Amino acid sequence: MQDLFSQSNEVLTSEGSVDTMVVLSWFSLQKGLAPYCMSLLHPYRKYVSRKGVLMYGKKIFWCFSALLFLCLMTPARAMASSGEPVASISAGLWYSTAINSFGELFAWGSNGDGQLGDGTTTNRNTPVRIGTASDWTAVGAGSSHSLAINSSGQLFSWGSASDGELGIGQYRWALTPTLVNFALSDGAQESAFSSYTVTFNSAGGSAVAAKSITNGAAVGPLPTPTRVGYAFDGWYTAAGAKISPTAPVTGSMTLTARWTPTHTFLKSLKVPGGKFKQGFEHNVFSYIVTLPKKKASTTVKVAKQNKNATVEFKVGKKWKKATTQKVSLKPGKSKTVTIRVKQKGLNTAIYKVKVTRAKK
Fold first, then answer.
1. Full-model pTM
2. 99 and 166 within one domain
3. SS3 letters for 242-296?
4. Which of 20, 60, 85, 94 pairs as cysteine with 110 (C-beta 3.0–4.6 A)?
5. Residue 42 has what DSSP assignment?
6. Radius of gyration (Cα) for the chain, nearest Å?
7. How confident is the model over 114-143, as pLDDT tens digits?
């Protein structure tokens, strides 16, 4: 161990030596040799550099050692835990990017301008995969934006566009990799990056407003409609492909919602001679049917949506299996017919039909 520091001790004079300080500080903190290094520096405590490099006392040596440790600490292996071989890397300002041997893109670090490309502006202290593509071949990280090339030779950019550095015809962030279009002249650039309309067909669910997306940009966050008795399965293109928020928009499109039933339902419900009106009752399909005075009776008729379902009627207190229910009324009177539809594996649906005979 003495030989390790012999050369450094020889150059430490009253003039001071930054090299000596670096060597001693680095080894003292990397190898746990702080007490030994301090003993080596002790004989020279009385010397003060004319340039202010060395100062009297032990405390300054500890402070300087700690500072140098922060500057000279051994680089961490960012993807060591997964063991994935890395094919390409690029370090930007306060963030880093890498492509593994499978062509997958990763990024981590500062993300205030969306330069990581994960669709957020959240800083990441571990590598996060960018998108689902596995054909990336090169990546470059800048101050606050990134560029990458895929195996087809297409260029993508994302991050800050305050000075147009993304090349996508806009001066606002792109939070995910966005295709850069080279095929157009400057005069055609404006139309090339015009906005397209994404229309949503909720297929019986709650209404969803259309959104305007710049050509080549990701479709972005997708709305979640609701539909009584159904669970939302996602948005699908006309070709039947489920779309993700990172999918690029290159033309106007209509996305259609798909649903999985959570309840069993009636296919139809009819009350001949009656005038229907929607009722309001929580967790129940409610209807109000008004009969003219001249019609003393009617029959509530239903059809099952699924042949495996069971339909039951109740007028009063008892349930009975049936698909029809006769209702007789005096003028000005009303009766409520409750219908229960059951099917194994699905929630039961309840319908209530209030039938009223007019007075006049």
1. 0.36
2. yes
3. ECCCCCECCCCEEEEEEEEECECCEEEEECCCCEEEECCCCCCEEEEEEECCCCC
4. 94
5. G
6. 37
7. 999 999 999 999 999 999 999 999 999 999
